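Lab notebook, bench 4. The sequencing result for the construct came back, and we need a structural model before the next group meeting so we can plan mutations. Quick request posted to the team channel:

Model the 3D structure of this chain.
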Amino acid sequence: MTLKEIADQTGVTTEGFRFYLHKWHKNLVLDHLGITDESQSPKDLRKARNRTKRTSLKYQDAINSIKQNPRSIAQVANEFNLQPESFRQYLHKYEPELISIVGMGQNEQGKRTMYRSEKKYKKAIELYQTTTEDLKSIATRLGLVYNSIGGYIRRNYPDAIIQHKKLIQEQKTTYKQ
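Done. Here's the predicted structure in token form:
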């Protein structure tokens, strides 16, 4: 039960009940906040933002579902009737290893990209910026969709395109000589 529900049922004010708990039953408050060591507890418990048991239970089924079948966070949030942005924030804070599988992060250039896409296209990007081979043949060889990898590189790795063009120019100048 929430603090408010208990206060309503017992006929006391919510603030009075909260004060009573913080004063005389601090261990219950710390347990509810997910703080196991009392030495780690902040002085003002109202500002403590730890994972509560109730919140953990709320997201547990959705987290297990993502672990079994990785897919987008928004899709899972809709399946379990959760607020997508709140669920995403919870995952970033308490499940960083799961976010590294399904979420978004920043690449070397500071652009926000999907971790899955980054992993999927990494080899193609390396080949594209270090060889003169055209992107279509790289995509075919690696079993990727040409339009997909092409758009991804244009959006997130414009420096790879510049590097590839430099290699082609260098190759043309060496053939002319």
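The first helix runs from residue 3 to 10.
Will bring this to the meeting.
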